[in-house]
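Bit of a strange request maybe. I'm writing a small parser for structure token strings and I need a real example to test against, not something I typed by hand. Could someone generate the tokens for this chain?
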Amino acid sequence: MAKPENEKKRQWTWVFTGAVFVLLIAIVFVPRNSPVSSIIHRIKSCYCSQEGLKYHGMVEDCCCDYETVDRINVEVLHPLLQQIVKYPFFRYFKVKLWCDCPFWPDDGMCRLRDCSVCECPETEFPETFRKPSGNGLSSDNLICQEGKPEAAVDRTIDDKAFKGWMEVDNPWTNDDETDNAEMTYVNLQLNPERYTGYTGPSARRIWDATYLENCNKYPSEECQEKRILYKLISGLHSSISIHIAADYLLDEKTNTWGQNLTLMYDRVLRYPDRVRNLYFTFLFVLRSVTKAADYLEQADYDTGNSLEDANTQISMKKLLYDHKLQAACPKPFDEAKMWKGQNGPELIKQTQSQFKNISGLMDCVGCEKCRLWGKLQILGLGTALKILFSENDHKLSAPNLQLQRNEVIALVNLLNRLSESVKLVHEIGPSVDKVFGKIIGGPSDQMSHLFR
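Reply from user aminoacidic:
Good idea to test on real output. This should exercise your parser:
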């Protein structure tokens, strides 16, 4: 009884094999401009593009693979970081919000100085936070920032103080971090990174100047040192775009917020290199945090709230010495391989100068809330560069490494932003690809579709 069935299976096997053989012959011998050749080309191009969207293997220029990054981020890093940034120490960022663009002073954007911001009464600030009066605006001065109230920074803070930190400038960034007279403290939890309505020529001009004048896209065969700045900025740009799309004002009339998947796809997910650069930047910053583990473990997280401060210290130790992270990805990025050639010292100086220019561009951002998060994340990236490429990188202990409080706040908040972006790409990416018609599956699925 089984013989006819087995015979039928063998016949169908031969038929399928013959069909595949004919297709292969067609690939070799069919003229390029024929209709069949066109179909074959589309199949091949679809398969190639899909391979680029399946993020697997090692992250380029890093020491960890995509699957491990996604797993360890979901299991360890993301939940820990989400908690850490809510503690008082990491909640308050000191920033120069007024605009004094060093590159195009006659542009007119700097007339937005302190625009759309309601300053808290001076009595609401702790003594250590206070700055000279006279820069405040009345509560009814709320219309500016390109007409979008979402661009305004909420400066409400509570009575917290910081102790025991040195004020030292970061050699990689443009701001004078020791100039307290021009700084104000901002509660990051009240000012999330999201859509603000900041678009158009002024926004494009910032990114154009960043890429075209400061970090060119070198081909993959160029040395790692020449590629690094572009990849870091591209990864940061991808992360910012993802957060704007993930928390978007969908309907201004009803004040409805949600995910703009079209924007997320158009800005990031449709470009595999942007996603890869996001993972690269995430691992680069993670490496800087783990490399400075001894320093960050001993750091003073005192804000005057003993319970919260103790929890901050405990959570930071978990982050720095988590056994799952150390086992899965002990060295996310190997900075020791860089700047070793004859041109090493010259390349690092050039990179530092370019990054300083990018840092200065943050003062040209015409949206206050965008400027806040731009400055924070550029300082965080500059702190990562400072840690990984400091002169005394052979022994980054407390005597050799000096970080100021604002650098640590920026570094950890940046790592949290990147962690959140990686998680969103991992969880939302596949479904967004399906919605926008990306071909899912390997070549066998596409081949079998031809014979149905």
